[in-house]
C-alpha cells in the first residue's frame, strides 16, 4: 500500500517557494533583481540575456530614469504597458498603495525619442530607431 502524500499548508508552500526564489536570485544573471521578484521579472531578465528583449530607459521630468524591459519587436503600446507594470511593482515594494491615473498621464504627456513624439501606439519601437539602452522621455503636451 502506498504511503499517503504529505500535504503542506499554503503558508509552508509559500515559504518553500520564497526560499527557492531567494537562492535563484543569487545567480549572477539574476542578482540585480529585487528580493520579492515576480516570475515575470525573471522571464524578462532571461529574455534580456538571450537577446530576446531590450531595456528602454524612461526619463521622467524630475530626472529619475526607470529601466523598462520590453521584447525586441515591442510596440509603443507595449512599452507603455511595461512602464505601467514597472511603476506598479515599484509602488507595491515601497509600500505605497498610491493609485495613478494612467489615462490622465497619457492625456497629459507624450513619450519622445530624439525629439520625436511616439504618437502611434501600434508602431514598433525600432521604427522610431529605439534600440537597447536608449532613453525615452516624458514631455508635457502643450494645450491646444
TrEMBL record:
Residues 54-144 form the Ubiquitin-like domain. CDD domains: Ubl_SNRNP25. Pfam families: Ubiquitin_4 (PF18036). Gene3D superfamilies: Phosphatidylinositol 3-kinase Catalytic Subunit, Chain A, domain 1. GO terms for cellular component: cytosol; intercellular bridge; nucleoplasm; U12-type spliceosomal complex. One of its GO terms (biological process) is mRNA splicing, via spliceosome. PROSITE patterns: UBIQUITIN_2. This is Small nuclear ribonucleoprotein U11/U12 subunit 25. It comes from Anser brachyrhynchus.
